Amino acid sequence: MTFPRIAARAALLVAAVFLAVSAFAQVIEYETEGQKFQTLSHNGLTVIVTQLPTQIAGYGLVQVSIANGSEIHWTVKPEDFQFMRGSETISALSADAVVNFMLAHASANDVVKLITSYEKSLYAIPNMRSNNGYEQRRQGALAFGASARMRAAAASAITLAQVRLGPGESTDGAVFVRVPKDPKSFVGGRIVFHSEGQTFEFNPE
Predict the structure, then answer these.
(1) Domain 28-201, CATH 2.60.40 — does that match?
(2) Within a 10 A sphere around the Cβ of 120, how many other Cβ atoms?
(3) What is the 3-state composition of the chain as percent helix, strand, coil, each rounded to the nearest 5?
(4) 92, 79 in Cβ contact below 8 A?
(5) Which residues contact 69 (CB under 8 A, 6 or more apart)?
(6) Cβ distance 38 to 50 under 8 Å?
(7) Which residues partner with 84 through β-bridges?
(8) Which of 18, 78, 174, 178 has a 20 to 30 A CA-CA distance from 193?
(9) Neighbours of 25 (CB within 10 A)
(10) What integer pLDDT is reported at residue 34 of this predicted model?
(11) Where does 57-165 show beta strands of DSSP type E?
């Protein structure tokens, strides 16, 4: 086989690999039980996002589920999620900030609506049962009965917590994002997540 033919085949192989990688990295959209989800994978980490219909005091909520199918550790922090629209970039609240926010602004009714909305979204994801997420945090939250402590406990259970995900581990939680122009939706913008030098960018809705 001549060198030009080898080079041509090599070029075709490289192109095929890049096409495969690009296809793998595309956002996949699907709907289940009336809820729209988007999922994206990079280097073995799969992130699923959906907007929750509930909003609290001007904050929109995004439910996030993350599974580590790679052989490395990934650091996940809620404040590494951003809402971007035009020149506007808004980072999500940290887990501690969410607890303080819920204590200051959320009513008991807000907590009930939030839990109901979150669980409906979480359980709609096929085969998604995290080993480091809401279900585990909820067990601890059930011990609190007083109003203020209940709100703090519910916030701690629902919000995405900072975690170092090892191989085979998963987590889930809600991120709170202030959307001043339209707190009821994220129309015209997109959700972006950064971790370990990788960027997960979800399509605008």
Answers:
(1) yes
(2) 16
(3) 35, 35, 30
(4) yes
(5) 41, 44, 45, 46, 167, 168
(6) yes
(7) 89, 190
(8) 18
(9) 14
(10) 80
(11) 59-68, 74-76, 81-85, 88-91, 163-165
